[in-house]
C-alpha cells in the first residue's frame, strides 16, 4: 500500500466514530502554548536556575526549545501528510511497527492520566489558602466536574475554554517579561531602589557556578516545560484545513514559547540571585506553589497582592493542564479503540462528537493522584513529574523515528519531495539529532536518585505494553 493512499479500516473510521474538524489555527496555537506554559515554567524555572546557574538555565532552555522545535518539525510532516487524531501511536504503527505504535499510545496516555489527580489536588490546596474552612476534597470535585464538562460538551467548546485559560497564562508571562525588563533598565523601581542591577547577576557567579553536570541533570525538567507542544499533532485530526493550519501553528507556538521561556529565565536571573530563585518551602503543598520566583519579582517591583495574583494564575495553569491533558489522553484511547486494540465502546462518540467513555475512564485513571494529600505529596509529585516527562520524551523519540522512516518509504515508493504538503527541513539531520537529544534527556532521569523509581517503573510499563500487544493483538493484525 502506498503512503499517499487512504488506508483501510481501522484507520478510516465510520461516521459514528469520526471526530469533527472544528478547531482553528488560533485554537491550535493556544492549545500548544497552554499545554506547555504551566507549573514547569512558573515553578520549575526557579529550580533550574538554582541548580544550573543563571546562564546555565538560559542555555538549558534554549537547548530545550531547539529540541522541541526539531521534534515539532518532524511532527509537522507527519501530521499534515497523515492527519489522524491520536496521531503519535498511529504514526509509530504505520512507520515503525504496530507494537511500537501500541506502546507509544499507552505511554502518552499514562503520562497525562498520571498527572490529572496531582493537578486537581494542587489547585485545591491553593484554593484552601483562600478558603481554609472548605475541604480540599470539595474543591477537587468542583474542578473535576468543570474539566469534565469542558471535555464532554464538544470539541469546539473545549477549544474555546482552553483558549481563554491559556490566554491568562500567556498574558501573565508577557506582563512579567515586560515589567521585568522595565525594572532591569531602571524604568520602574525595584525593591525600593531606583535601578535594578541590570544583567550583572547573569555572570556574577560565573556562567556555570555549579559546573557542567547540573546543566545535563536539569534537562528533563526543561524538556518537561515544553511538554504539550506536541498536542498540535493530537488535534490535527480535528482541525480545519490541517495542511495550512498545522505548520503555521507549529512555527508560531514554538517561537513564542522560546521567547516566553528564555525571556522569563533572563528576567528572573537578572533580578534575583540565582541561589534564591528556587522555591521556598514544601513544593508539594500550597505554600511552595505560591512562592514561585514570579511572586518574588512581582513583590520587589511593588505589584499589590502579588501572591494572590500568582496563586490565581497557577490555579488556572493547573486546570488548563488538566483540561488539555484529559483531551489528549482520551483521544489516545479513542485511537486505540479505532484500531481494535480496545473495546469498540471507547470510540463511540456522543451527539456532540466527543468520546464520552474514553474521557470518563481517563479521568478515573487520574484519581489516584488525589492520594498525594495523604501519602507524601513531595514524593508522589516528584515521581509523577518524572513519569510525565519520561513518557513525553519517549513519544518525542517516536515522532522523530516515524518521520525518518516515513520520508525514506515515501521516496522509495517513487514519490518526490514536491508531493509533500509540508516537509521537515535538513533531513535526515533534524530527525536523527532530535532523536539522540531526546534519548540523552531520558537517560538523565536515571541519574536523579529521586526519579529512579519512576524511571524503572516506566521501563517496566513499556515492556508490559510490548508484551501485551504481542500476546493479545499481534496474531490478529
TrEMBL record:
Residues 27-450 form the Amino acid permease/ SLC12A domain. GO terms for cellular component: membrane. The chain crosses the membrane at residues 28-46, 58-80, 92-110, 130-149, 170-192, 212-232, 253-272, 309-329, 349-371, 383-404, 425-446, 452-472. One of its GO terms (biological process) is transmembrane transport. The keyword RNA-binding does not apply. The keyword Membrane applies. It is a multi-pass membrane protein. Keywords: Membrane, Transmembrane, Transmembrane helix, Transport. This is Amino acid permease.
